[in-house]
Amino acid sequence: MTKKKKIRVPLRKNRQTTPRQRGKFSQQVDVHEHSDDHQSRERISRKGSITRYRTIVSSAETAPGQQPVRDVDTTGCLIGRVLSPHGGTCVVEAEDGTIYQCAVRRLLKSLATSERGSIAAGDRVLFRPDGIGQGLVERVEPRHGVLTRMIRRQKHVLAANVDQVLIVASAAEPNLKPSLIDRYLISANVGDIKPIICINKADLVDLVELQPLIGTYAQLGYEIVATSTRTGLGISRLKHLLQGRETALAGQSGVGKTSLINSFEPSLNLKTLAVTVETGKGKHTTTAARLLKLSFGGWVVDTPGIRQMELWDVNPVEVERFFLEFQPYLKDCRFPNCSHIHESRCGVKRAVVRGLISILRYDSYCRIRTGDADE
Ligand SMILES: Nc1nc2c(ncn2[C@@H]2O[C@H](COP(=O)(O)OP(=O)(O)OP(=O)(O)O)[C@@H](O)[C@H]2O)c(=O)[nH]1
Ligand SMILES: [Mg+2]
Ligand SMILES: [Zn+2]
Known about the structure:
The chain is an alpha/beta fold. It has helices at residues 19-26, 37-40, 106-111, 178-190, 207-219, 235-242, 257-264, 347-353, 359-370; strands at 5-12, 50-58, 78-86, 89-94, 99-104, 124-129, 134-140, 147-151, 154-159, 164-170, 194-200, 223-226, 246-250, 290-293, 299-302. It has 3 domains: 5-140, CATH 2.40.50.140; 154-302, 3-Layer(aba) Sandwich (Rossmann fold); 316-370, Probable gtpase engc, domain 3 (Ribonucleotide Reductase Protein R1, domain 1, Orthogonal Bundle), CATH 1.10.40.50.
């Protein structure tokens, strides 16, 4: 017998904003995603927005931070994997490979800590088929390996149940931003996912230029690979790293995430677009996260590119903890609360001067610590 527990969950009103408010909101968005996005940007627990509660039965003790698992009658239900969530619905692949267009129980949305997080690409769900090719998601199974990001102070789950994240940057167009790589490394660390770094568009620069950066990360023990979807450089190594794994691809718009997937899975023929010539910025071509099966084994989640990366769950004073190479020198700082930025007699800064810590990483640290945006 599994342990059962009654939980009270708030049910939200169907509509929290007026169309007018939503229109206003959509003008401020900095990340282009599908059209329900501006709605979901709204705060979840706005005062007065909760109208009633409902008691649900959870099948087991719920781990802190996890959403409770509903105890549902599983008769007639199927197990499936969410390929792409879209607003209140999602495309689910059942274990036998059949595709279902599923609605999601409103109760599940209420259960989630954020509306955005109610269903994500990669989620394992229990759903009830009702009609040909259609169904209703009854339950979302507990997640492991979650890739999240913050948009306007709201946490979005981009991919669930992944083993690793491929952090994609480009050597040029858009310009290489090491601090963005470091922000992703921190979020992979927080989300307990193995990071792999990919520097794409290597054809646009002299490989020698990339060596210091590649060397820095390799020395820190990270897997890093230079690729080009134009020349094929690094693609077979990348394929090998992804084979049999579940990997979310993350990175700025225009770095070539979708192109990389196309390069080892041409049959998918996913849409890509050239970056804007004047700015070198991507056009936000991929608009929603999508779970895709690889013919050589494994899964990938293609995600929409971001313009800015905010960190969450990380206090500025904690940032140093994620820079492993700083650790031996912290004891040499004069002040115990040294920020390693403006203080004198700082062990970290001394190590940078002596070439024991890479200037590239130190610069990244300063940007992240001071909250500098990486536009
Ligand atoms: N020179 C060069 N261009 C590339 C390479 N890989 C991709 N591109 C180009 O970069 C542009 C953007 O590629 P996408 O694959 O759409 O980029 P993305 O990261 O998926 O962008 P979003 O979906 O907007 O997040 C396209 O014009 C690609 O042809 C590469 O290795 N070298
Ligand atoms: Mg894309
Ligand atoms: Zn210091």
